[in-house]
C-alpha cells in the first residue's frame, strides 16, 4: 500500500442535537488513507485483500464488527465497488463506520493519466486504483471503551494493545 496521513474537516448538514458534537461526529479528525495501484485483472481480488486487512485489525482488537457491501445508491463518485466496516458501540447502541474500502477501477487513473505497460513492447494501459481508510481512531476508541468497560468503570485494554499501553486495565 501507499499511505498518507490526512487531516479531515467535515461540514455537517445537521446543526443541532446530541449527534452533531463530540468524538463520534467530530468536525475535524485525522486519518490514514490507504492507496493501491493494481492491474485491471486483479483489482477486485486486491479490494478483497484490502478489506481483509482492515477486518484483521478488528479481529485482533476483539471487537464486534460488520462488513457491508454498499449498494449503487451509496457508492461514492467514481466507485465501482465499496465496502464499509462498522464497529458496534453498545453504549450508544450504534454501528459506527470505522473504515471504507473502494475500487474505483480506472476512473482516477484516467483523470490523472496513470498508466503502465503490461509487457515491454505493449501499449500503455490505465491502472486500477483502490482507496481505503485506515480505521478511524476516535470511533475505534469509542468501541474499545464501550465494549471493554467493566462494572466498576475500568476499561480492560485489548490484549493486542497491552504491550503498547503498558498495562492491562485503565481506571
Automatic annotation (TrEMBL):
Residues 1-158 form the Aminoacyl-transfer RNA synthetases class-II family profile domain. GO terms for cellular component: cytoplasm. SUPFAM superfamilies: Class II aaRS and biotin synthetases (SSF55681). Coiled coil: none annotated. PROSITE patterns: AA_TRNA_LIGASE_II. It is found in: Cytoplasm. Belongs to the class-II aminoacyl-tRNA synthetase family. Type-1 seryl-tRNA synthetase subfamily. This is serine--tRNA ligase. The lineage of its organism: unclassified sequences, metagenomes, ecological metagenomes.
Amino acid at each position: 500500500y501507499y499511505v498518507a496521513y490526512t487531516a479531515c474537516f467535515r461540514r455537517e448538514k445537521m446543526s443541532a442535537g446530541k449527534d452533531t458534537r463530540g468524538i463520534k461526529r467530530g468536525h475535524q479528525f485525522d486519518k490514514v488513507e490507504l492507496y493501491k495501484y493494481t492491474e485491471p485483472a486483479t483489482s477486485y481480488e486486491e479490494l478483497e485483500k484490502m478489506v481483509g486487512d482492515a477486518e484483521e485489525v478488528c479481529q485482533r482488537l476483539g471487537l464486534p464488527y460488520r462488513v457491508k457491501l454498499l449498494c449503487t445508491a451509496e457508492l461514492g463518485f467514481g466507485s465501482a465497488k465499496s465496502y464499509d466496516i462498522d464497529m458496534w458501540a453498545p453504549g450508544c447502541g450504534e454501528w459506527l463506520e470505522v473504515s471504507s474500502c473502494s475500487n474505483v477501477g480506472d476512473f482516477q487513473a484516467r483523470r490523472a493519466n496513470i498508466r503502465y505497460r503490461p509487457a515491454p513492447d505493449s501499449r500503455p494501459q490505465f491502472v486500477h486504483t483502490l482507496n481505503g481508510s485506515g480505521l478511524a481512531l476516535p470511533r475505534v476508541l469509542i468501541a474499545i471503551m464501550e465494549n471493554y468497560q467493566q462494572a466498576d468503570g475500568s476499561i480492560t485494554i485489548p490484549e493486542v494493545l497491552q504491550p503498547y499501553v503498558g498495562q492491562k486495565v485503565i481506571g
